[in-house]
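Sample 3 of the quickstart, ligand pyridoxal-5'-phosphate:
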Amino acid sequence: MDSSRFLSASVTELKPSGIRKFFDLAASMEGVISLGVGEPDFVTSWSVREACILSLEKGHTAYSANAGLMELREEISFYLDRKFHVNYEAEREILVTVGASQALDLALRTIINPGDEVIIPEPCFVAYGPLVKLAGGIPVYVSSNSNNGFKTLPGQIEKAITQNTKAVLICSPSNPTGSMLSRKDFEKISNIIKQHDLLAISDEIYAELSYDEEFTSLASLEGMRERTITISGFSKGFAMTGWRLGFAAAPAPLLQAMLKIHQYSMMCAPTMSQHAALEALRNGEEDVQRMKTDYRRRRNYFVRSLNEAGFPCQTPGGAFYAFPSIEYSGLSSEEFAEQLLLEEKVAVVPGIVFGSSGEGFVRCSYASSLSQLEEALKRMASFMKRRQHAGAQWKTLQDF
Ligand code: PLP
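Result:
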């Protein structure tokens, strides 16, 4: 019997993530250096792990309140105020979720009516479009320009607005490009959002990993708090991907509506992870800063070396991704990623999976040890040299 006839139309339409395909291929090979994964290479701080162990020893194995432990929501509220200058009331405006992923899903399902459009600057995180579609909406992608470091262009957003536009989904620092919007950039975008009376969903999962300038939280801009759903979590800055813990913060009417879906579909986030997150927020700052300093060092080394090896790459302001051009290889981003993996055993992600303006680029995560990065760069450089000999129009560094 063909059970696929039971599938819903929206799921049948969904394409599997382009990232998975390369992970699966890489996992079947030996000696692969993976620059493909989007997660820290640090193990979660010991004190955070210990807090979880202690909570289990104490027998904290039951459900928490639907919205999350009150203590944790209070701590998140202090944290957002202390670090990003945004005020949210712990009781009614903060929701603890299963990763930022669930917070995004809830936000979109809460606001979208069938046919509503959500504007998404791309290249972007692979989940955005599918989540909008699963919620019954239409993702409207706007492209960004590699010449300005893939910063979202306010004019592009404005051009994409129609009478069906409901929201704009912004991510800074960005996955996959690492680009960061300044306060000025955000001001321009928020003026458009206010003028057209739209909602903003601000994915701030990489907020802790901004290297050159202070991070701006969209809700901290004048008139934006009331029309922003802020999404964040512990996965990246606190190196806690496997704990599956994130949160959303929004004005009570929006947040309480998200909570309605959450209480029926999830009940609550894992209680032991919530106890761990409490410790991360109370005593984790030093470790976050230590990891950030390390990423910054790797970024500087990695981006400089990419440029030297024939991969023009702007310096990303945040996250742990570099997004170099592969133009001089003469290959498409998918061909490049596949051939690099097969010939040199280095896994990167083709830029096209993040949107059409990602074509001609690949995403490399530098959340790997310096020695791994060094070896990966050696292999990438020799791959590029061979392509040059194969006739690709490769230029030297002086030409960039
Ligand atoms: N948002 C962005 C931009 C991401 O890159 C990721 C993970 O890669 C997520 C959200 C999901 O994070 P979480 O692990 O908290 O679900």
